Amino acid sequence: MRRVTIYDSMSRATRIFAPMQPPRVGLYVCGLTPYAPAHVGHGRTFVIFDMVARALRRWGYRVFYVQNVTNLDDKLIARAAAENDDPLALAERHFAGFLRSMERLGARSVNYYPFATDYVPEILEQVKGLVDRGYAYVADDGSVYFEVAKFARYGALSGQKVEALKPGARVEVDPRKRAPEDFVIWKAATPGEPSWESPWGPGRPGWHIEDTAMTGRLFGAKYDLHGGGLDLNFPHHEAEIALSESATGLAPMVEYWMHSGLVAMTGEKMSKSIGNVSSLEQAIDDFGPGVLRLYYLNASYRSPVDFVPGKSLEEAREAYGRLSAPADRIAEILERDGPDRAGDPLPKELEEAAERLVDDLDTTLANDFNSREAIALLFGWARRLAEILPQIERLDGAGLTALAAPYAWATETLGLFERTPGARSGGWATVVPLLLAARARARARGDYAESDRIRDELRAAGVEVEDGADGSAWQFADAK
Predict the structure, then answer these.
(1) ∠125-252-230 over CA atoms, to 5°?
(2) Alpha helices of 298-337 — where are they, by DSSP H?
(3) Which of 85, 93, 235, 401 has its CA 20 to 30 A from that of 31?
(4) CA neighbours within 13 Å on the CB side: how many for 7?
(5) Sign of the alpha-carbon dihedral angle for 281, 287, 291, 297
(6) Is the pLDDT confidence value at 374 over 90?
(7) If you average pLDDT over residues 180-203, what whole number do you get?
(8) How confident is the model at residue 478 (pLDDT cuts 50, 70, 90)?
(9) Protein fold of 310-414
(10) What pLDDT, on the 0 to 100 scale, is given for residue 135?
């Protein structure tokens, strides 16, 4: 396994990556709350952590990557009410659209997308444990709150001081709380909203506790790597630490924290709640996945990036054209003539340069996932090949393959230069089972209209679903 360093947000230092049980790595990334279509800002976070998982796997680590789905919260309930829809069905639809965007972007490294509502038993168990241990209290209406004052390390990740939290500013004014910084982990039911029975009456999970219930079940009390956008550093990730370590008595909950910089539009964080968003699906339609991935990765993952409509992706498209031109030409020749094509042998000096570059690319990316410097190395290689294009046209298949090795590296680790992005033979094997799971959840709650809608969308994409006593099976329509 290659030596890897990571900037750890908790220690505020770059550390050598040492998983608890090498080569196994538990990676958890806070995912989508699908109350509206995904935007360009979402795409950056998930492409960055797709790169992290891809690279670690290349270097010999066995990564189990989990990305949660918050399929029920206040925003979903409010949006569903405004649209006269069921919040769980609304979440399923937007998540299906998100999956299509991730497939098109080549972000296929996630092993499991757990839904919050599928972990209610684990959430209730954790809430009860926190109440029993004295870290949480029950309000008069049956809501349960975590008492921040009981957890001395609250604020260690973000540097946020508890005494700085003022009612009505950074925290919600709520007379049911003992202190303004306390946060709800079980919300008493409101008429007309989805709810579950609990020892404190019907209710639903609070936001923060879904993640710790999931990771406790999937990884145990401690795991290797937690990622997410910088906007989640406080209060969400701070709350996760407090909940997990209070529930288990074991610390640290996570060995390494990674936070990606945000995408800003006109200097302000891109956010669905603000409304300054640019559709991810539309950006992929207009510019293609390679351009978008280059835009995301051609900067330090920890740095914010500014998105200027009509400019940012046009510049990225021009840069991607220059970067990919030699790779495209080599691929075209090999696709036409095959890898055994006759021609001139590759000069030894170029062969060795390509080999050195691949090693340099690995070394560069392993330094805190420095994709910007890796892409700079690729631009240098593209310029060199462009200067000797007539010579390249005369090379044999082995020589062309050797010259393409740095581009093959970029495809494997950065997701660039994919010849058939979104090809059904690759990602569909992951996406279809997830959509079938969504369909099964709809059927379980009696929402047959939603179940039929998912089946019809799959059929429109060329996937036939057959229901049987043992569940649903699928195949491509032309495979019958």
Answers:
(1) 95
(2) 312-337
(3) 85
(4) 14
(5) negative
(6) yes
(7) 96
(8) low
(9) Four Helix Bundle (Hemerythrin (Met), subunit A) (1.20.120)
(10) 98
